[in-house]
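Make up an example, fold above all:
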Amino acid sequence: MKSTKQILVIVLCLALAALALAGCNRDWAADYDDDERIGGSVASSSIKGSSIVTINDTTTFKYNTFNGTKEMWSVNSNGAGAITVDHALEISKGRFKCVIVSPDKEVTVLFDETSVDNKSYDVPEGKSIIKFVGDDAGVELVLQLTAEGDASLKILGDSSRKQNVSLID
C-alpha cells in the first residue's frame, strides 16, 4: 500500500503535467480575433519553418506556419511622424495580419490579406509597436517600412534582421 506522501507526489506530478499540456493547446484563432490580447504587452508565438532575409531596406519573411503574436518593430514619435508600409503579401494557408498598436493600445490593421500595396499611416505621440499576428498561417511577405517626419523605427527581437545582405552586381 502506498503512503500518503507517495500519493501526494503522484497527484502533484499529474497536476503539473496537465498544466504543461494545457499550454500546448493554445487557441491561436481566438487570439487572432482579440484586439485586447493583440494590443497587450504579452506576445506569444509558435513559428515553424521560417526564413528572414534583408537586402538593403527590404525584408522577405517566409513562414511555413505562423501562430500567435510577434512584436517586430517599435515606432517612436513626438506626434508629427508617419510610416510608409510597402508590402507584397501572399498567404498560402490560414490567416495573417500586420498591425500597429498605439501607445493607448488601439490596434490598427496595416494589411491582412494577399495583396501588394503602399500606404502611409500617421503615428501618434509615444511608442507604438508593429506586430505580426497569425492563425495557422503560411506566409511569404516582402516588406519595406519607412519612417517619416519625427518617427523612428527600431527592430525588436530577431537579431538576424539587423544585418543587411549586400548584392554584388
Confidence is low (pLDDT under 50) at residues 19-23, 159-169.
